[in-house]
Amino acid sequence: MDLRFTPEEEAFRDEVRQFLVEKLPTRLSDKVRRGLHLTKADMEEWHAILNARGWLANHWPERYGGPGWSVVQRAIFDDEAARAFAPRLVPFGLSMLAPVLIKYGSEEQRRHYLPRILDGTDWWCQGYSEPGAGSDLASLKTSAVRDGNHYVVNGQKTWTTLGQYADWIFCLVRTDPTAKAQEGISFLLIDMKSPGVEVRPIVLLDGDAEVNEVFFTDVRVPVENLVGEENKGWTYAKYLLTYERTNIAGVGASAAAFDRLRATASSLTRGGRPLADDPLFAARLARIEIDLANMATTNLRVVAAAAHGGAPGAESSMLKIKGTEIRQAITALQRRAFGIYAQPFVPEALEEGYNGAPVGPEDANTAAPTYFNMRKLSIFGGSNEVQKNIISKMIVGL
Amino acid sequence: MDLRFTPEEEAFRDEVRQFLVEKLPTRLSDKVRRGLHLTKADMEEWHAILNARGWLANHWPERYGGPGWSVVQRAIFDDEAARAFAPRLVPFGLSMLAPVLIKYGSEEQRRHYLPRILDGTDWWCQGYSEPGAGSDLASLKTSAVRDGNHYVVNGQKTWTTLGQYADWIFCLVRTDPTAKAQEGISFLLIDMKSPGVEVRPIVLLDGDAEVNEVFFTDVRVPVENLVGEENKGWTYAKYLLTYERTNIAGVGASAAAFDRLRATASSLTRGGRPLADDPLFAARLARIEIDLANMATTNLRVVAAAAHGGAPGAESSMLKIKGTEIRQAITALQRRAFGIYAQPFVPEALEEGYNGAPVGPEDANTAAPTYFNMRKLSIFGGSNEVQKNIISKMIVGL
Amino acid sequence: MDFQHSEDRRMLADTLRRFLAEQAPVDRRNAAAYGDSGYSPAVWQGLAELGVIGALFPEAAGGFGGSGFDIMVVFEEIGRALSVEPFLGALTVGHALAAGRRADLLEPIIAGTSIVALADAEPQDRGPDAPYATRATPDGDGWRIDGAKAVVAQAEAAALLLVSAQTVDGASLFLVPSDAAGVSIQGYANVDGGRSGEVRLSGVTLTADARVAADGRAALAAAEAAALLALSAEALGAMEVAKAMTIEYLRTRKQFGVPIGKFQALQHRIATVLLEVEQARSAVINAADAFDHDQGADRDRRLSAAKYTVGATGQLVAEEAIQLHGGIGMTWELPLSHYAKRITMIDHQMGDQDQHLQRYIALGRAA
Amino acid sequence: MDFQHSEDRRMLADTLRRFLAEQAPVDRRNAAAYGDSGYSPAVWQGLAELGVIGALFPEAAGGFGGSGFDIMVVFEEIGRALSVEPFLGALTVGHALAAGRRADLLEPIIAGTSIVALADAEPQDRGPDAPYATRATPDGDGWRIDGAKAVVAQAEAAALLLVSAQTVDGASLFLVPSDAAGVSIQGYANVDGGRSGEVRLSGVTLTADARVAADGRAALAAAEAAALLALSAEALGAMEVAKAMTIEYLRTRKQFGVPIGKFQALQHRIATVLLEVEQARSAVINAADAFDHDQGADRDRRLSAAKYTVGATGQLVAEEAIQLHGGIGMTWELPLSHYAKRITMIDHQMGDQDQHLQRYIALGRAA
Lengths: 398, 398, 367, 367
What we know:
Chain A is α+β, with helices and mostly antiparallel strands.
């Protein structure tokens, strides 16, 4: 048993840190740290920087452009990048579609799409959820009917994050309406510029519009855009959903958010004394810090098991639940820390270059919107309830 | 809206207090306050004192010996008695069987059994649960087969509280094995001295033996001991279970236990300062105190609704859940208050007249056994999970 | 003992609920709440005409109510409708003036013709007994005030601000016209609707009678007590609606072929929400009773108990309501999300759950 | 980075687990734990012969282990088997002596031939830096001790007590034979099994060399660090078993015609138990790492983090395990109840969850 990294791993960490110091634009890390909105160009900028270094697709096989890192190296990179407030990479092409193509796509599809993901030509989004199919994903209704060399797609997807920027969407569609729920589903790649595709933003409670509805009306999709076999899409979808993501616990991001919270608590007073000396606030802070330190080790245990070839099972559900709980607890306490100044809502202040007079302490006004926005963590990506069902199925087996 | 009691009710409260001062033996209230074991004679003593005053069966109709109190008067009495550390009345005859007999029994049964409950001739216990039928009570298997003027009973009951003292047991038995689960059940009164009845104690984790298993082997029970109609027992059982008990929240008992906890916290120090000044302990104490003050009003709201003829529904489940949570929180904090001195286990110290040297502060050694014993509150009497099912059925209606 | 509101109060509640349902359904409420003025002058005027403001004050102050249960009834309805009209300002300023024996100033407030705001909190945190940074100094026959006030609800809409400021006599209270020279207001939207503002006072000169209380402590305590009760009742009203919406969603939303209310894990969670909301209702009843019958630390303890309770329960209810709704619960379009925001942000007004728990403890020690 | 225990440690754990399963299954454990001596001398001697005590100490002290992960492995197994043998005394006294440069005294302890107990806590609570009420005064060439020590684990079984007492040099440590004149022990059962005792020292005279540390602070800190790690690991082991028993019960107990593990509300609760126990395991791993690699406040913080974690998680696990079992979980007969008791009572040893959370905070401020 040894929690310490090897000298080689520590050297790698230093290399990553050095890279982040040199290459991560302060303008971007400042925006991330302060919880400001990233533009499409911001995200593309960081994507391109990583691609130039060859570190973008760090979990891809080398033959497709991955850096050949071990699971531990990927965990180190993800952790350091998050702690440095690097923008999160948009995962839809890189971490969701690509693994599916690599495992189930045709060589032609891989050769066409993967380089375009790397160089940023194609921005992908995800077409899984539907208004009637959330946790019960397999009940999806969007249909694809074969018509010569095309599928004709009709239906609606929802919760399509950043779909407003996307060139392409990968979709689960129903190709056999007579089959049982999970058996008539196919995995289809659809050009967002196709006639009949319409994107409508969904405004969230924090005023943000990062998710969308996508409507398909008689959209013609060439049959070569089918991934794998017709009616086998559920297999690919499940692979995508359980695809081992070392970063699911978000330890690095939570650690960065916690550092920011602690700095906030140190800078503020309440009732005339430092907020960090308020016994109940201090207890909340300490509980989160301990939970996070425990989580960091839990995460490394899973990473180490993966490095030894262990298959992720209940572990990834566990990391998802606990990771999101901790992140949400941090954002709740960050909101709470600002007291009355969490109430003012200055949406312009969430955008780069805002020059208005600040209201209250720095960053106070992003605390409540961030808290509300982060409620999504326990809902999206397989709700925490679904994750508990999975854990229970694994351990109780009923 | 008025939380205050009427002058008449306050006068009644004074009368009750006066009675408790005069008639409740200090020997008994001391034992209750300190969490010592009550003997059968202790319980009978208090029973007889109340009966002599005519206040024993305070929820019975006057014609059977009740004092004719309003719902509010009963709540006041129960509250004051608990706060004065009066022994809890053994409910099996008084509050469980009697209401069933009054509503569903024959006049002959009422005339025979009710006076004997009042004067203490018959000590009753309850034969509901079975090893395979806990929350799923209707799956009970104890059978009663008609044989001339008798039923022949075979089977086993469990969790029979104070069954070791009982003269009689009221039982749910299966009289029609072919009917659906809830339809073949009858309500039978069985003399514990009948041949074939055997009582075996169940030792609980705190070393206490207040509950029992009761075995029936070819026990012959006269048919006149059937309450109501054959195969209608489930109706009576449900009536008994949902029978409006103003005292289900246990506000008085929790208030008394809380007072004791506060006295403990005031008398002890930790790390050199008063325990009540420890910010986290003080916060735990205050949360419970507030929850209890809220509960007291919630309870009065239900009492007031009952006084206006409102039927108890989700309310009694709510009182059960929250009341037991509060009581358990108090006992957990009482245990916690004593620190290292909660570990010594001196079972003799739970008995009256123990003269051994005390270990640690007064009453420290009863704190952990009481905490463990009180875990039963959320399990027995319809587990809190069953109560949540009931609430959800009432409000969501699915 | 009687847990029914009086006939009069039930009528008031019904009238208020009907009026708000008709005149300020959630889409119109949102348009006003997130709009330029942050509230609806028409709704405000309509409610004033219905006598809602008068219900917040006793007859001695020109109203026809003013008991704890009157405040509870009105603010529970405000919470149910997410009303953003400037009631809290009228309540706090009015009760401060009445406690400071200046009930003579209440008439335009009760008529709804004068919108008022309490400007007490300051940008810089201070200790419980520390002086205000805002200072008033004698200036000829009158006063001159300099300082700043923080997150003043509906500051832009207010014609008059009741400002606390340090003087040689202690914390005095001043009625300051918002258009007085030297008063500047930086207004902004609130995350949960309505608008507030930062008030700056630079060399604001006032006549002698602008000082409505030389020692403002009793008046501020009265305002605080009324505000804690009102906010607790408002939170209760909003929680009741969020709970009802969630129950309805559990009944109707289907997944895996059945309404999600069939799933026992969700059933148990909504049951917990139900019983905690009932406990919160009891806490608010206790607070209203304390407002009417208790004095000093006894009263303040029960008020803090209520504010603590709705803070803790509010977080549970808001988070569970969103979680049980899933993604749709996070959308601007669904009224629920606005209830969740309001419930959450009440814990940021007049002290949060932790502060009130600690105040409760401290008051108990002092007693 | 490697989260597998070394081959040696895995073997140690396997051996220990097998031995305890064979020699001290729960019925025999209970007979010993609640019996007259409060442990099984045969089991203790067997374990000593297996080298279990030696695994707790480094080679320099005559053992062949002594790292944080050795202590974790041993005490996790102790927790899994609910062993009541006097390991904690051996561990704490041994590490105190080793830290006080008196490793020469460890041989009989490691051999298991001398049972020892740490007698540090006192009946009267005292402040963190307050002097001990137990006092040692020079007496000829030696010492005379008067005072009392509280809840000393296995005091009756111990041949030697390591007693902390105030001297002119500060808090000194003395090795006191339990049969010395003036030592009296009031023994009693623990609610969770095993026995402890109140130790009274009245005019106990000792030779000069009985004082094994003039300034006992470093030695006591070493004993405390080892004890916090050991108790945390013991709690983890006991929680693992309680969790496994509960999962098995959910699989097999039927109500309403199906195994109760089919009920989603219970499924979600056991899932929560699972992930919190995994977090507790991580906390213990962190503590073991701190024991080996960190110093001073850094080390103590991570140890307190672990003790806090197992305290809070232990309450969850013990209460949920009982509740999910229902009535049967409360019976003496079912092994689970004894696990629940032990898990609960560990929060009463060496500081509870609140105390360690506050220590964690205080150490962070000091840093």
